[in-house]
Amino acid sequence: MGRRIAIIEEDKCHPEKCGNYLCIRLCPVNREGEDCISKNQLTKKATIDEVTCTGCGICPKRCPFGAIHIINLPEKLDTLPIHRFGKNNFELFNLPTVKKGSVVGIIGRNGIGKSTAFEILSGNLIPNLGDFNAEDKELLKESTITKYSNTQMGEYFRELYSNNIKVSYKPQRIELISKIYDGKVIDLLKRVDEKNKADEMIEFLDLENVKNNKLSELSGGELQKVAIIASVIKKADIYFFDEPSSFLDITSRIKVARLIQSLKEEKAAVMVIEHDIATLDYISDEIQILYGERACYGVMSISKGVRNGINDYLEGYLPEDNVRFRDYKIKFSRSIKELNQDAELLVSYKNLKKSFKNFSMEVKEGEIKKGEVLAIMGSNGLGKSTFLNMISNRLKSDSGEINLKKKDINISYKPQYPVPEDITVEDYIKRHAGEEMKSGWYQQNILEKLNLKSILQNNLLHLSGGELQKVYVAGCLSGESDLIILDEPSAFIDIEDRIHLAEVIKEFAQKKDAACVVVDHDVQFVEYLADKMLVFQGDPGKNGSVIGPTEREEGMNLILKSLKITYRKDKDSNRARINKPDSQLDKEQKSKGKYYFI
Ligand code: SF4
Ligand code: SF4
């Protein structure tokens, strides 16, 4: 057995709410008179002495907020980590390998050190090699170079710390960019345009219409594109992209993938963290898996080929190391749910038309039933909001028929990125769910499945992007709404949680007899989640039309046909893989009209 570590997630430690340091009162070592668990005089949180802790397992079981983890590290980790954030804090054991002229895709759970690895490799964080009290940065840099001296990473760190490596970094939380700079898009991009390519990139990613807008006026997808362009047009030796596909439609995901791939031609090294596995698959030349335990420790696997790397991740098993890092496999095959043909109608519509000054849309015949989960995919700017407002009686159509089951449909809406309030998770959810929050069903099917129980006492302002997303989805899936609209619920959420999220949404739709409309661009997530599809087509920003609801496969096929993209299914994992344009499979599927799988 390897070294034992004790982790305390300080944001989950609430001594005043657990009965005044419950863990201290329960620890057998403390009861014998030693200070195994004590109060941190500065933070007032619990702290554990890893030397005297016997690993009895009482405190992690009894802490009501799941703040404590006692971990026996695997034997092979009997070395010091590359970085530890502090006493009782997360440890990262190794780093992905930087390779010039290659795109390395990083896959792993949230909270397992992916961003920390990027921070270290970009020079923003000097690793402490486990000695979290060390203060001499120059000495730490020397020690890091020495630690890696037998590998190419030793040379990388030598060059990095001599300021001979230029880094470009696209962060995960793009919405924070407009808080730092709220000028016009064009002014920001011109300021960082070292390759004189800003105009070309603006055209390539269709930002012409918004280039004179301020950053705070952009949609999530537009802001993501600006952040990506700003990174790409800097001259750099290494580029980091932390979740580049969030908020982008499929066409843009593929364009961005090509853009990132093109950096190889400049002989740059590229690293990408991505949770949309179809995009990760398309973007990467190799894969490294980061595994371990969330908030506790992270370990990077060796580099693997893209297909095997992603499939091993889904299996939860690394064959070359004989390591099982998850006790279940992620499977995408789902049983086709028998849709209730007698389900009550929520709304039906026929031949709707609506025109604005610069945009017009047409909607063919369709009906939405209670209990259904509908997915909207396709490009942005085709009138999703206009359509949803018309069918919910919030916007009058110019012509056509709408029949609503009742006069006012109750709608719950989760926008792309809601602004967090200064409130605890518990109070936020209570506000939406009321007394239902206490029910067994809600506790089990929403709070437990979304892993929210342990953060109920946390403030929304201090949550990660993924946690915040799940809290807002939970808020939306509360109360008695007829129509739930979730705009991009998969953003910032890892693959495991995307599966849980899909199950929660499906379960809610059935139990509450509500229709859920989900706007999302992760093909795998949508395929797993949706009963039916609403297909949006047209010329973004100018005109749009809506077909459906259609059967899932038919809808996918229609959308992908309009985007001229084909997907195949991986024979081992069943996951969707994007075909390279003009590849044999791409041509074959197009000639058969099978844009979605063969
Ligand atoms: Fe209470 Fe848990 Fe914090 Fe210990 S770790 S003081 S049991 S909240
Ligand atoms: Fe004390 Fe360690 Fe047991 Fe926790 S696991 S109660 S710290 S001995």
Write down the Rg: 25 Å
- Count helical runs: 21
- The counted number of beta strands is 26
CATH architectural designation of the largest domain: 3-Layer(aba) Sandwich
CATH superfamily of the largest domain: P-loop containing nucleotide triphosphate hydrolases
Helical residue percent band:
25-40%
| Portion in beta strands | 15-25%
N-to-C terminal Cα separation, in Å? 48 Å
Ligands bound to this protein structure: iron/sulfur cluster
Provide a concise account of the structure shown.
By secondary structure, the chain is an alpha/beta fold.
Describe this structure in words.
- With 598 residues, the chain is α/β, with parallel strands linked by helices.
- The protein has 5 domains: 4-72, Alpha-Beta Plaits, CATH 3.30.70; 81-166 and 236-247 and 258-329, P-loop containing nucleotide triphosphate hydrolases (Rossmann fold, 3-Layer(aba) Sandwich); 174-235, no CATH class; 345-563, 3-Layer(aba) Sandwich (Rossmann fold); 564-598, no CATH class.
- The chain contains 21 helices and 26 strands.
- Strands 15, 16, 17, 18, 19, 20, 21, 22, 23 and 24 form a 10-stranded mixed sheet that branches. The chain has an 8-stranded mixed sheet with strand order 5-6-12-11-7-10-9-8, sandwiched between helices. Strands 1-4 form a two-stranded antiparallel sheet.
- The longest helix has 18 residues, at 495-512.
- The two termini are 48 Å apart.
- The model has no long low-confidence stretch (mean pLDDT 91).
- The structure holds iron/sulfur cluster (2 copies).
- One iron/sulfur cluster (SF4) is lined by residues 27-29, 36-37, 48, 53-59, 70.
